[in-house]
Amino acid sequence: MVSGNTDGSQMGNSCEEETYILRVHKKEPTLVQPAIETKNGLYYLSNLDQNIAVTVQTIYCFKSQDRSNEQVFDTLRESLSKVLVDFYPLACRLTISTEGKLIVDCTGEGAVFVEAEAECNLGTIGDITKPDPSMLGTLVYNIPGAKNILEIPPLVAQVTKFKCGGFVLGLAMNHCMFDGIGAMEFVNSWAETARGKTRLIPPFSDRTILKPRDPLSVNFPHNEFTELDDLSNSSTNLYQEEALLYQSFHFSQERLNDIKTVAMQDGTLEKCTTFEALAAFVWRARSDALGFDQNQRTKLLFAVDGRSRLKPPLPKQYFGNGIVLTNSICKVSELLRNPLSYAVGLVQQAIKMVTDDYIRSAVDYFEMTRLRPSLASTLLITTWSRLDFHSTDFGWGEPLQSGPVTLPEKEVTLFLSNGKEKKSVNVLLGLPSSAMERFKELMEI
């Protein structure tokens, strides 16, 4: 790891004709260990953790306050050390168990922590709801030479000071450690610790409560793992021939209500939630924009929170993935020629399918097959719109803005809240340039 690393990337500013270069000087990474000795040995990861072992990068932007940012490095490092006592697996390393599955080796060697300084003011990074991954990527630390997730610690934190007094916390965390709810629980616990507060209820760390059944029992078809035949070579070629563009689309409460009205207008549906309507709407538009063959089967994948659906429910402070992927598959011709209510109905069926028995069947299915969900001809929707990113306060107030640096796979679309507006949604996705133009047109309909 080289000291004094400088990363540069270009960013266009829509208000001016200039092009900015975001230069970030990074010091040599250090390791932050738990404040006291924690458990060692191997820490079990459930089969729900195994399915989504990807690194998720997010940033939190804090403006200058009366409190000096001179203290920010020490404050965040010291509070991280304290919070890692309860969240000790984050200070460890991933390895492969004798069963050939991911497991945590509790070495306690520490989370990676990087101090950095930018040569500009915080305002230079602009609106992160319209992300430039090459630019925002300078605000998180990537382990040099890492070839796979086993070589990347579960938690990597970079704190970047800006000339104006503001700073950015950039996090790279492995999804196998927790889902969005668990991640926010950790980040907010860290923030409260930085403010001198102590959470009274520690995380529930025993993931063996989601062990496979004995004997294994697969009672459902788990089509989330099904590999769909690719009849749409044109759409595949688009990703190879054209630049991948990222765009965020804002859906106001009024616009979301309009989509729900369209979904309900033929009388097919008794009711319809915002998520169901928006997921169906985006699934249809993306399939159209990518020019899928009409006979192509397309899959919609999305996560359902299984915490309350399990019997008994997972403990409230469960530290791990409590979500399960559900799915719907249909021909593109059926998706596009039928009214929106048809696609909404498919989404509703996929949600209704998720019961205690379905979740445990999915756990057992993975144990039998060791398959990962296939993303061929698939849209994978991840919903962050209900996660409270915007209340995270390390002592410098709530973040000006926060969100993802990029999307982990080209098939992933994120539903995000629009700042503190809980009833509106930003839809973030990446598409080849020509498909993005078509998708923009469909968003205006």
Automatic annotation (TrEMBL):
Coiled coil: none annotated. The keyword Methyltransferase does not apply. Transmembrane segments: none annotated. One of its GO terms (molecular function) is acyltransferase activity, transferring groups other than amino-acyl groups. It holds the Pfam family Transferase. Keywords: Acyltransferase, Transferase. Belongs to the plant acyltransferase family. This is Omega-hydroxypalmitate O-feruloyl transferase. It comes from Rhynchospora breviuscula.
